[in-house]
Amino acid sequence: MLDIRLIRDKPDDVKASLSTVGVSAGEIDEVLRLDERRRSLIAEVEQLRNERGAASKRIGKMSAEEREPLVLEMRGIGDRIADLEKALVTAEAEFESAMLLLPNIPHPDVPVGPDESANAVIREVGEERQFDFEPLPHWELGERLGIIDFERGVKVSGSRFYVLRSQGARLQRALINWMLDLHVGEHGYSEVYPPAMVRQECLVGTGNLPKFGDNLYRDVDEDFWWVPTAEVPVTNLYRDEIFEPDQLPLYHVAYSPCFRREKMSAGRDVRGIKRGHQFDKVEMVKFVRPETSDAELLRLLDDAEDVCRRLGLRHRVVQMCTGDLSFVAAMKYDVEVWAPGCGEWLEVSSCSNFRDFQARRARIRYRSEPRAKPELVHTLNGSGLALPRVLIAILETFQLADGRVQVPEPLRPYMGGANAID
Q1: 52, 239, 275, 289: which is the annotated catalytic residue?
Q2: 210 prior amide bond cis, ω within 30
């Protein structure tokens, strides 16, 4: 959520910044109108309460005859206050709703552009593997090796579901365990295992609600929502809390299943395991001081890239332009791996600096020094990495001419020493 004081004090600057992410000037004007209405009602209620309080003191010193007209007048003021308080509840709700629908302001260093066509490739790492045979897409490899079962996934749960079998299931588990160990042992993160269901307020806190409610799964009988990413429960571990000076920076890494209503496009997106309603992900989340968050984003990005480097996967880093930023991000980099069988780049991590946008919604603060006034923290997150696309890249990159798939060296201890999947 944005700071309303910033919108009041610098409306033209806010309009200019948010215009680059598709917000019209009229939407900002509407927020200001609702804010003015809310503040006007608050002022009127406070004024009438003060009048009633002052009158009550006078009434106590009056005779019965003197106080009667004043009592009647105060009853009228009481009725007016009750009416205004009802109007204020509505005005507060309308203002809150409008504020929650405003996206984050882009970082000044984010390139301006209308859509993904203006994204900037920052770097490519690794050489494209040269095959002396025609590389297969993962859906063919998976079926031939008996490690991906599409038919029974559909049988159990419907379209866009699949079953990993045997060494396929073990490879996914090996990736999760290895990535967690890497981030904890070498990158300085503390592991948590959060719930996969959260309350509505958690999704409001991270910016998923109310904007993206249609993309989420929920239990209609309880206030439970299935998480689209571990970022949601991990960030909300500290909702309504204040960090002391020695607690920051705080880095967490978490594995979780993730659930999203994927809107499938026609063509290659419907093939294989690239998109599904359920997938696994290892997520990195940071809570940091504001003055360090830009540097922390670059470190977060390097932690995500390190997974690709160690696995030997060709990858690239893409900086999102304003038109392709997420709703909550002030700055975002994507890490994409090359899948030679599919012949496309697959996003496996989005590393974002949200600045104080989430912290204001979730009321997460810190003290810069003991007993100092609490300030909002900056939050960041990035996948480290997301499955099953890493699985796709491994199967397609390390496939062999005889139909086997070579196991990347870091994963072999997690695969019982196996060098290949056959």
Answers
A1: 275
A2: yes
User: Of these residues, 38, 260, 314, 355, which one is catalytic?
Assistant: 260
Long-range contacts at 365-374 (CB < 8 A, ≥ 24 apart): 365/241, 365/242, 365/243, 366/242, 366/243, 366/244, 366/245, 366/247, 366/248, 366/287, 366/289, 367/242, 367/243, 367/244, 367/245, 368/245, 368/289, 369/245, 370/244, 370/245, 372/245, 374/242
Indicate which residue of 256, 293, 350, 352 is catalytic.
Answer: 350
- Tokens 């005859």 found at: 65
CA nearest 189: which of 380, 408, 360, 387? 380
Q: Is 367 one of the annotated active-site residues of the chain?
A: no
* Beta bridge partner(s), residue 59: none
The 8-class DSSP code of residue 324 comes to: G
From first to last of the 422 residues of the chain, give the pLDDT tens digit: 999 999 999 999 999 999 999 999 999 999 999 999 999 999 999 999 888 878 777 776 676 667 677 767 778 888 889 999 999 999 999 999 999 999 999 999 999 999 999 999 999 999 999 999 999 999 999 999 999 999 999 999 998 899 999 999 999 999 999 999 999 999 999 999 999 999 999 999 999 999 999 999 999 899 899 999 999 999 999 999 999 999 999 999 999 999 999 775 555 566 899 999 999 999 999 999 999 999 999 999 999 999 999 999 999 999 999 999 999 999 999 999 999 999 999 999 999 999 999 999 999 999 999 999 999 999 999 999 999 999 999 999 999 999 999 999 999 999 999 999 99
- Report which DSSP code applies to 356: T
Q: Tell me if residue 350 is catalytic.
A: yes
Of the candidates 358, 365, 363, the one whose C-alpha atom is nearest the C-alpha of residue 206 is 358
Q: Which of 27, 241, 262, 347 is catalytic?
A: 347
Q: What is the DSSP string of 48-71?
A: HHHHHHHHHHHHTTS-HHHHHHHH
Q: What is the DSSP letter of 399?
A: B
Paired residues of 288 in beta bridges: 378
Distances 384 to 47, 72, 254, 283, 348 between C-alpha atoms, Å: 54, 68, 9, 5, 8
Dist CA 373 CA 377 (whole Å)? 13
State the pTM of this model.
Answer: 0.93
The alpha carbon torsion through 198, 200, 206, 211 (nearest 10 deg) reads 130
Cross-strand pairs, 345: 338
Would you state the structure tokens that stand for residue 72, as one six-digit string? 């009647």
The tokens of 224 are what? 């439970």
Listed in sequence order, the residues at least 6 apart from 315 whose beta carbon sits closer than 8 Å to its beta carbon are 124, 125, 126, 305, 308, 335, 336, 337, 338, 348
